[in-house]
Every structure is written in structure tokens, then in C-alpha cells.
Amino acid sequence: MQKEYLPVKTQLGILKTENTQVSVTLKSLPQRTLGWFYQSGNVIGLVAGSLLLIFLILYVMGRLLYAKNVRPKQAIRGRLWVGQSKEDMEEISLNKWKKPKVVIGIGGNQEEGVDITLKDSDYNYEFIMENTLKKSKFSAMDGYRSLNEEAVPQMRARTTGSGIFIQGDQISTVVELNKSTDFQSAEYFFRFEPFEGNNNRIEGENLLKGKW
User: Which of 61, 64, 81, 179 has the smallest CB count inside 10 Å?
Assistant: First the structure.
């Protein structure tokens, strides 16, 4: 009886042997399908994780740009002179509040939240100096926009209640403060000077401290 040898290829060459065990795993179609989805799931998870990481990096960078280029410009800056006559006016530096809104209470009967109080008045209302910027709903987007478009604040003052402003022969409840402006409200005269670059003299001492 002639023996038959089964050739097996190895790294050393072709080996012929009588007994060779071959392990064969047979997978059904559902098993192969599940395996494909498992491998695809790993790929999808990797892609989703990478996209999420990129999004987080872009978001953080946008917020940093917002904090550097946009937020500082929201703060009220400049100088305000106030007095009950044009010849006797004292200066307030608005820079120290470092916020987009400064509230001035006339009459001294206001609730909390007033930054400056002018008590010598028969009236009782507030006027609010505020900075506004063109912004979107997302600060990160505003941060990236600041790379191509400089944020330019629009500053104005508005009154509450029965308060009014007088400029010459004009009476209004809103005054634009984007340039040097003189106006009157209640018994007080005001002069506003906008912030001038890095002019350090604007960072003066509050001369009204303890007087009202």
C-alpha cells in the first residue's frame, strides 16, 4: 500500500508529512455580518472621537480669542465730568468698573445696583451708560470674527422712569456717547470724553468718592 504525503509549506521549505491537523473555523452569514458591524463600529467611534476633539479645540480657541479681542472692548471706558454748574465740575474715571454698563442714580432713592449716586436732586431716577457690540449667540464665533473684523462698541446713555436728557434745545431719553458730548439731566451738567487709546491719565482717581 502506497502512502500519500500531504505537502505543507513552511518557512524552511516544503515539508511532507503523513499526519497534518488543519484548524478550520466556519462562520455563518449572520456571524460574518456581526463581525463587519463590530469592525465598522470601531472605525466610526474613532472618527466621531476625532471630530469631537477637533470641535473642542476650535471652541476653546474661539473663546480665547473672544476673551482677548472682544470682551475688553465691552467695558465702559472714558471720563465723565459732573457738577451742578458748568464751572464747577469734577471728574469720574469710568475705567475702574470694567463692565459694559454703569448705572448713575439721581436722587439717592434707588435700589441696589447703582454705581454712582448723585443725592442732591429733587428727582428720582437712573441713567445708564452702556456699551453695546454686534454679537452672535456664540462667543466662540465672535472670537473668530474678531480676526477679520474689529469689534467697535457703540456707547450711549439712557434714562429710566421720568428722566430726560437736555442737549441745547433738544430733549431726549437717549444720548449717543461715541464722541465728546455735553448734556444735562436733572440739576446736573455732564461732559463725557471717550477713551483715547492707552492714555493713562484716564485712569485717574475718583474725585467724587465720599462726596455723594
Answer: 179
